[in-house]
Amino acid sequence: MPTIYDLKPKFQQLLQPIVNKLAQAGYTPNQVTISALIMSIIFGSLVALFPANTALLLLLPFVLFIRMALNAIDGLLARQHNMETKLGQLINELSDIISDTALYLPFALIENTYAPFVIIFVILAIVAETTGILAMVISHHRAYDGPMGKSDRAFSFGLLAILLSFSTPTYLINCLLAVLMILSLLTITNRCKAALSVN
Fold first, then answer.
1. Helix (H) / strand (E) containing 92
2. Whole-model pTM above 0.85?
3. CATH topology (fold) of 4-197
4. Cβ atoms within 10 A of the Cβ of 18, count?
């Protein structure tokens, strides 16, 4: 099923000059991954502390974009410059789950959102990523199937942040969250199928 993840190759091409400069400067993929993780935790904490701050909500799409860029950069650094390690894979997978939780769970504290929907969505996101990882155990291929993968979640919550900052009616916000939950369930199903279908 189509997902924003399909655009990753073109996005990586745009980031190639940055990757080359970081490699020349001696930066490692793990440093990039941890930087994205720290940024996510700090910003998510700010949203949790100041859930009514419109400026933070408007800034979130840019933070999510930077996080996606850093996530692409660490992979390119690892593959292109022979820096792939088991520790790097572990840090990468764990940081994705922690970052998602840190950035999205604070939405439960925002007045116009229905907190249980946000919490359920975050749980489903964790399950989706865990399913993708388990696919490696079963089929030796990481499952990235959508329609609600990491990039799709970032886009959706960036949009949600913008809608919230412009006082979008509560029922529309929660309808969007309900749709995101349904798409997350479909993602989990698709990743299970992908894991079981590979010979």
1. helix 86-104
2. yes
3. Four Helix Bundle (Hemerythrin (Met), subunit A) (1.20.120)
4. 15
